[in-house]
Amino acid sequence: MMTVLCLPADMGTAFAKHFLQQLRDQATDIVLDGGAVKRLGGRCFEILLSAQKTAHGRQARFSIQNPSAEFQKALELLGGTFLLEKENNQ
């Protein structure tokens, strides 16, 4: 069974430590639902990058489903739109 982590509206610095722990608790695939995200901070963006790299390193799936318009815009501004690309869904 695949666990989907629902991301909160505010992915600021206050959420970063909790987010990192949630990702560390994922045994295999990393599947995130970004539908509620209104704000993405730099620290959480760095954690997303690391999670994608870790998932690929263990031949696991990394996927961001249902990204909100704000989340997509933040990823665009930070140069992270590649995190939404389908080849992450391996």
Task: Provide structural commentary.
By secondary structure, the chain is α/β, with parallel strands linked by helices. It has three helices and five strands; from the N terminus they run E-E-H-E-E-H-E-H. The strands form two sheets. A three-stranded parallel beta sheet has the order 1-3-5. The protein has a two-stranded parallel sheet with strand order 2-4. Helix 1 (13-24) runs parallel beside helix 2 (42-57).
Features:
alpha/beta; 90 residues; 3 helices; two-stranded parallel sheet
Could you give a short description of this structure?
By secondary structure, the protein is an alpha/beta fold. The longest helix is centred in the middle third of the chain and has 16 residues, at about 40-55. Helix 1 runs parallel beside helix 2.
Strands of the widest sheet, in order across it, are: 1-3-5
Q: What is the mean predicted local confidence, pLDDT? A: 91
Number of strands: 5
Largest β sheet strand count, sense and barrel closure: 3 strands, parallel
The helix fraction, in percent, is 40-55%
Radius of gyration: 12 Å
**Sequence stretches where pLDDT stays below 50 over 5 or more residues:** none
Count of discrete alpha- or pi-helical segments spanning 4 or more residues:
3
